[in-house]
Amino acid sequence: MIRSCEYDQNEILASIMQLCAIERFDADITYGNGSFYKKIPEPNLKFDIDPQVDGVMEASSVGLPIESSSLRSLVFDPPFMTYVRAGRSGNGNMIMAKRFGGYWRYDELEAHYRATLKESARVLSKKGIMVFKCQDIVHNHKLHPTHIFVTEWMRDWFRLKDMFVLAAKNRMPIPQKSGEKKKVQRHARIHHSYFMVLERF
After folding, report:
1. What is the β-pairing status of strands 142-144 and 137-139?
2. How many whole angstroms separate alpha carbon 28 and alpha carbon 76?
3. Is residue 101 part of a domain?
4. For residue range 105-126, what is the model confidence (pLDDT) as tens digits?
5. Do the domain assignments include residue 97?
6. Cβ(196)–Cβ(148) under 8 Å?
7. What pTM was estimated for this model as a whole?
8. CB burial class (10 A; 0-12, 13-18, 19+) of residue 181?
9. Complete DSSP assignment for 22-79
10. What is the number of domains present in the chain?
11. Alpha-helical segments (H) within the chain
12. Across residues 174-191, what is the average pLDDT?
């Protein structure tokens, strides 16, 4: 029985492959270090804006060197954090920023996600599958339900075919400087992310 909630992202990807009859993803457009592919086959094409391993082509998810309507499946696992963009002042040197990247403002995240949806729609064939990993975040003391926004941003090209929830077993502790006044918690700590399965019209 395939469940919609798991603690292992590899299990979720394997479930998506089984349900969508995918033997191997055609492309991963934000490949990173390849952590998705410990238990499933490597994608045929691997892209990243800053390649970390051999065999990955340098390309942005908003401008892919791929012919239109040529792919049947792709994976998109973008950064999701704000206030931690590497190279910026402030929190740019945080370990999480260096490890995962991010955006300074939520509108930067939105612009990247919207443009990638449009570009993914261009390269996917009809009924092509886009696996879109995202996480809701609190930015500037406001909850941004990103997975809900994605269903709005995608509506010109995709329908939501399926959705999985990845529950986190652990979360990094929130750092606090010595002598700093204890922060008052105003939002629940987010311990899950989403794997949205989008199907091209």
Report:
1. antiparallel
2. 6
3. no
4. 889 999 999 999 999 999 999 9
5. no
6. no
7. 0.85
8. exposed
9. -SS-SEESS-TT-GGGSSSPPPSEEEESS--STTPEE-BTTB-SS-TT-EEEEEE---
10. 1
11. 9-19, 95-100, 106-123, 146-153
12. 72
**For the stretch 31-43, what's the b/e string if a residue is b when 16 or more beta carbons lie within 10 angstroms of its beta carbon?**
bbebebbeebeeb
Residue type, 197: V
Q: Which residue has the higher pLDDT, 86 or 182?
A: 182
Are 36 and 56 contacting, i.e. CB atoms less than 8 angstroms apart? no
- Name residue 190's amino acid: I
Q: Are 116 and 78 in contact (CB under 8 A)?
A: yes
pLDDT at 174 over 70: no
Strand partners, 198: 130, 160
For residue 76, give the nearest of 132, 38, 114 by alpha carbon. 132
Which domain does 26 fall in, by range? 5-78+113-136+143-170+189-200
Q: Contact 158/130 with Cβ under 8 angstroms?
A: yes
